[in-house]
Design brief:
Helix content is 30%, strand content 26%. By secondary structure, it is α+β, with helices and mostly antiparallel strands. Strand 3 (70-72) and strand 4 (78-81) form a beta hairpin. The longest helix has 17 residues, at 195-211. It starts with a strand and ends in a 6-residue tail after the last helix.
Length: 217
Amino acid sequence: MEFKLIDISRWDRREYFEHYLTQVPCTYSMTLNLDLTILFHEIRKRSVKFYPVMIYLLSVMVNRYKEFRTSIDANDNVGVFDLLYPSYTILQKDHETFTNIWTEYTPAFSDFYKQYLLDVENYGKIKKFIAKPNPPPNIFTISSIPWVSFTGFNLNLPTATKYLLPIFTIGKYFEQNGKIWLPIAIQAHHAVCDGYHTARFINELQETMNHFFSKEF
């Protein structure tokens, strides 16, 4: 894992970064429905689990663009991770709470899927906030709320103004007008990520979902 420092004095985003980080601290969220129809049927056909497929696809997209990998380290240095791993929630039904597990991202879906299954098997029943030990600094967060098809979702981070990495929340998929839709919310920091970047992310995520299983994995 590499964290490449940014020279803010020469950064073309410096004015925007300073404005939205310190002058007017600003995060924002975007909630929308993704067309899950094609991917859903392909998942059923191949008998793979839905959740790790979405975790993998979000990881692919996050690692495609530096806006979603820009962060501030423990020494207040601004930089870009060369690679991010997903950290995701697993429900603890008997306690009605959840466990966080992280899985190392690998470009090959088959490798990632095997490691996901292994991580859930090893850590999924551990009743701790963070079950898998030693989470690295290069992780981003995914949560799942598969019991409700929300139309809006917003995280309030009043004291986390320097947390720049994205946060994703997935809702319950539903059928409407002959298609299957998946609610998803994206929380982003305006200091490093504008509406343009989020829109590009969503559009390319949708395209990747539509054609994912047409590629070998």
